[in-house]
Amino acid sequence: MSMKILSPAGDFESLKQAVYNGADEVYLGVKDFNARNIEGFSLATLKEAVEFAHIYDVKVHLTVNILFSDEEMQSALDLIVDAYNLGVDAFIIQDIGLMSIVHEYYPEIEIHASTQMGIHNLEGVRQVEKLGAKRVVLSRETPLEEVARIRANSDIEIEYFAQGALCVSFSGNCYLSSYLHDASGNRGKCKQLCRLPYAFKYEDKEIANGYLLSAKDICMLDRLEDLEKAGVTALKIEGRARRPYYVGVATKIYRKALNGEDFDIDELRLAFNRGYTAGYFDGNGDIISNRQNHIGIEIGRVEKFVKGKKFNEIFISSDREITPKSTIKFIYNNEEITISAYDISRRGGLYRITTMQTVEVGAKAYIISDFMREEEMKKFVFRRPVEISILAKIGEPIRAEISLKNHEIIIEGDVCEEAKNQPLTEKDFIDNFRKSELFDAILYCDINAVFMPKKSLNDFRRKVYDIIKNELIKTDRNLLNKISLPKYKEIEEIDSALDLYIPEVYNEIDIVKNKDKILYLPIFATTHDVEMLKQIVEKNKIPVLVNNLYALDFDTEKYIGGGMNVYNGYTAQYFGRPYFRAEGGEYQMPYMTLRHCPMKQHLGADCVHCPYREGYEYVMPNGKRMKLKRSKMSSCTFYLTN
Fold this sequence. Notes:
Blueprint lengths: L3 E5 L3 H9 L4 E5 L13 H13 L3 E6 L8 H13 L4 E4 L2 H10 L5 E3 L8 H8 L3 E5 L6 H10 L3 E9 L10 H6 L16 E5 L2 E6 L6 E3 L4 H7 L3 E4 L6 H15 L6 H7 L4 E2 L19 E10 L5 E6 L8 E7 L2 E7 L2 E4 L2 E6 L8 E6 L1 H9 L4 E9 L4 E8 L2 E9 L1 E2 L7 H8 L5 E9 L2 E2 L2 H20 L26 E2 L6 H6 L4 E3 L6 H14 L3 E3 L11 E3 L8 H7 L16 E3 L3 H6 L12 E4 L5 E8 L3 E6 L1
Parallel strand pairs: 1-2, 1-11, 2-3, 3-4, 4-5, 5-6, 6-7, 7-11, 10-12, 20-24, 26-27, 27-28, 28-29
Antiparallel strand pairs: 7-10, 8-9, 8-31, 13-14, 13-19, 14-18, 15-16, 15-19, 17-18, 20-21, 21-22, 23-25, 30-33, 31-32, 32-33
Helix pairs in contact: 1-2, 1-9, 4-16, 6-8, 9-10
């Protein structure tokens, strides 16, 4: 398969694991300016990271994928220019004001539209094409048929999430953490409140409880052929906050799958999983895990528990080898206990583990970390193969000939002497050139009874590898100069409620009845939905509140809704219309926009006999209630509201 693998790199060790295990591209962030609340890279370490990746022909994408305040825009732009000058290949951007500035002043910079922009249809793609985006990172909610429609009607590169965490709320439109804790997910500060336990109630009667908003992980290993046929360019592995081990395993498994090689999906599950799903690829998916953390692989059950004076004994039946220092999770009646198996042995077909904790007989055992596997992964290093022809003739400088980047390089060292005793052999050269952390030399030697001091040969090897490295990291791009941003044009911010019409069911009759109001357009819309909405509002000249990029070209009076995430004056200037500010203003968006169906998930309902009505709520552990609302077009979208 020809799709590329794009792997996460939260730190340098993760970067190495991604590169060693077969990534074509990596994405990483610089501290404070990316959507993962992790340390990330500095400009100094970014230079080193870019050079390392480029030695292996791996491209580097920098995530500048948060919303920026007016005061931060200059720094964000300066960062992009600095990173471009360091060799970064592309920039993943969410803030449309920043994107418009980069496109206007630096058209040579490659822009990728972040998944946080919520692009899920062709109409949204066309908007970022106007801004010079070469690639779009589609929202996780984008179904298969829309991926294919985008490919059939656009040359833009398509990036699709294939592995990793799945947000339960629509991409870029979760405000729960922002509104409750002033920690915006769109600013990289998400508190992961979806991973808390919730109660699902109807008029105060509890229907379900548990981790009801905790999504499974995406795994598209069995849908790779569908993705390629639909026109996906790059498979994205989520996980900049994950350990290097996870990055290495996930990259390796997807590389094997794309190469048509056998792979062990349990190896991927062991690295991290909350249960797997294809997400919304086929529509409104079964995505809720009812677990908020890693569940690993089920390996057996507790057959016996012996209480001791100091240490207890757990006896597990398992067909799987359990190595010392592995971490095992026991689950019984939704209670979890995690134990590191430092003292483990096998007796009579059962594994015996000593611990100070208490575990119930009958508890299921899950291995969530295999110490030996992780140690093996840490030791794995892949060196880039490079073919080198060595010519060593008496009385002539030793010579290396290398073909790199479609041109020949000739490197000379000291003059070769005639060997008086033992001449240098091909093996001597091979052994010497093995001394590299980066390169795996494939040598072709033409030597003739020569001798060379060890220091001269070592110096020659270092010279050859330094020139190869410099050639691989060299770039022909012109360095960019920084600019001072001009002041933006002030656009009216709406700080009071408009006369909005927010239908539960979007149909022409009801919309036209309320044509004197401003129609609230939904955040998510299929191809059919977009065509229907566009036809109704344009024919009847109905003003609209735009909450997603797909509606920007509707030929009617438009206001910019909170769903468009206007966070600074440059974004407001780009839209050029009165706007609501979702964060930092008076207008409040729904806490979450859900594309799965809670009725199916918690009630086992179907669309024919849908039980939805007013009165359903999600209740947080602290008692905070969120009402469940629904909007319906060709499919249902649900909202959690205050």
